[in-house]
Design brief:
Strand order of the largest sheet: 2-3-4-5-1-10-9-8-6-7
Radius of gyration: 27 Å
Mean pLDDT: 85
């Protein structure tokens, strides 16, 4: 576009809605839909409508911009509250003789749309297509499982070439979003996420307001999106491990899912979705079938077999509508999810591995899948925990509950009791942390001097908790291997028994074991592949340092014992 030709840039947040959404099924994809919130459009012959949220107050700036840049109208009279106002434009277009429904959001409008009605890969696939056509990568947010000790999201440096970008992501499982700058007469830049596409579109001054030009622009985005869906080579450039599948492939896998659940060698189980909550507060679990007003009898743990037993035959399964309800000790609902949201599984088809997690299917190469599973299997080892330790842990938690202690550190209670069994050093204390290069670090939870083990423990199987557990072990072990002259004396100062002191000779760390100990309370002793990916890289690094690495599970501890008056009432 020539320098003389004046253009304006319009910022849009665009979602492509799933195929079962249409202009008339509004409560299917708009949260808490109310007819009174439709402020424009939606009449019989319209292919769009404007839907607002929020209440009274001061008018947000984007409302004025919408009137001036998008649709020359008077919607500003409908809006007020800066903090809570939002607008969603629901727009239907016909592309290649097929209808598509878009949600274009302003302000807080994105919260109007039901999350499971958004095409998951639309944003990130469209960004990939633009990069494949020459757009420059500005940043890439990823789920990092490399040897970065903090194991957090990182951002690549500015203006990466595709080649450097691919190499940098070799050890990452999922790209979370792509930020790219385009050299185009119609697109300035994009941020492609799972679901939405944030895009800066260029319009000539004569095309402002741009409403009458949006259909063509949305059709262009669809072409880009569809191209990636059918071109696996583009997807494989950006996803070195797990890769999100197209909506068509997701549909195909969901259609065979029910039969796969009941196969003898099924690799499916129920787990807690990635939501921050305290699983030790869960007293029991119930299943509520879609057609029943009452939920099932209580169960102690999440179990796919228990759920399947209630449904009796695969044909009757209703994974989207059937619910899993977690109850607290008072018997009240603590958390609730659909069975599909809690269903995790792995299945092999046509020399490919498909993984279901959080109601989304991912693809993975067979060789990587088998290598990682073997790596995790090789470090598995049973650990003996005395029944006295389990009993004392439960009893101490119960005593804290009786005393109405607000925060009960259940993990530390177990660590203290298990440390007594091992005659080890309890390092799960603030005053036992050490400082290296200005950063505080936890040495481990328990040091077992006889077997020379650094034991790191964590309650629960949620990926977020386990990521912290695996990383904690890595950071400490790396410090021992690479900064021995600082690490060893710092640790020895924290040990109560002089006989337990570490050896600071050249390769002394190679005589030690890093043991990850998962205290399981409400699920099966299984890791999701997301957790396996994180652990796999850490295992490789720790073994490279010369450590022995072990993974163990602890079962049979009641981490949420009932109070005496509750037992009596039952």
């Amino acid at each position: 576009m020539s320098e003389e030709e004046k253009v304006k840039t319009v910022n849009l947040n665009i979602m492509l809605l799933k195929a079962d959404c249409n202009l008339n099924s509004r409560d299917n994809y708009i949260e808490n839909y109310e007819e009174s919130n439709v402020i424009l459009g939606g009449e019989e012959n319209d292919n769009y409508f404007l839907y607002k949220n929020g209440r009274a107050g001061q008018k947000p700036a984007w409302v004025i911009e919408f009137d001036e840049q998008i649709l020359k109208d008077t919607i500003k009279d409908k809006f007020a509250n800066t903090a809570a106002e939002g607008l969603t434009v629901i727009k239907q277009i016909v592309h290649n003789n097929q209808k598509y429904l878009f949600a274009i959001n302003f302000g807080q409008g994105r919260h109007n749309i039901t999350k499971d009605k958004i095409e998951d890969t639309f944003g990130i696939y469209t960004a990939m297509a633009l990069i494949d056509q020459g757009a420059k990568i500005r940043r890439a947010g990823t789920r990092n499982i490399s040897s970065n000790p903090r194991n957090t999201e990182f951002q690549n440096a500015q203006e990466l070439s595709n080649e450097i970008f691919n190499a940098e992501l070799e050890d990452n499982d999922i790209v979370r979003h792509l930020n790219a700058v385009a050299d185009s007469s119609t697109i300035s830049s994009v941020i492609g996420k799972y679901g939405p596409l944030n895009i800066k579109m260029r319009f000539k001054e004569s095309e402002i307001p741009c409403w009458n030009y949006l259909d063509d622009r949305l059709s262009l985005l669809l072409d880009l999106y569809k191209n990636v869906q059918i071109n696996s080579d583009i997807v494989n450039k950006f996803f070195k491990g797990l890769r999100p599948l197209s909506s068509q492939k997701q549909k195909e896998l969901n259609e065979i899912l029910k039969d796969k659940l009941t196969e003898e060698d099924s690799n499916f189980f129920l787990f807690e979705p990635e939501i921050d909550y305290d699983s030790t507060l869960v007293s029991s679990i119930k299943y509520k079938l879609a057609e029943n007003s009452r939920s099932s009898e209580p169960f102690e743990k999440l179990s796919l077999n228990d759920y399947l037993g209630l449904r009796e035959t695969p044909e009757n399964l209703n994974l989207n509508q059937d619910k899993i309800i977690l109850l607290n000790e008072e018997g009240n609902k603590y958390k609730e999810w659909s069975v599909l949201k809690c269903l995790y599984g792995e299945l092999k088809l046509d020399n490919q591995v498909y993984i279901l997690s959080n109601a989304v299917w991912y693809g993975l190469s067979t060789d990587k899948y088998e290598r990682i599973n073997k790596n995790i299997e090789d470090i598995g080892e049973t650990i003996e925990v005395d029944e006295t330790v389990k009993h004392n842990t439960t009893q101490e938690i119960l005593n804290e509950k009786i005393n109405e202690t607000k925060h009960i550190d259940k993990e530390r209670i177990f660590n203290r009791n298990f440390c007594n069994q091992l005659n080890g050093e309890l390092l799960d204390q603030i005053n036992k942390q050490i400082t290296i290069d200005g950063d505080k670090m936890e040495i481990c939870d328990i040091f077992e001097p006889n077997k020379k083990e650094f034991i790191h423990s964590k309650i629960g199987t949620k990926a977020a908790n386990l990521s912290h557990l695996f990383n904690q072990g890595y950071v400490s072990a790396r410090a021992f291997a690479s900064m021995k002259e600082v690490f060893v004396p710092s640790v020895n100062d924290k040990l109560d028994n002089p006989k337990h002191r570490l050896n600071n000779s050249l390769n002394a760390h190679q005589d030690y074991t890093i043991r990850y100990l998962i205290i399981n309370d409400k699920g099966e002793n299984k890791l999701t592949f997301i957790s396996k990916l994180a652990l796999d890289k850490i295992i490789t690094d720790l073994k490279g340092f010369g450590y022995n690495v072990k993974l163990s599970w602890v079962d049979g501890i009641d981490l949420n014992p009932e109070l005496p008056n509750q037992q009596a009432s039952e």
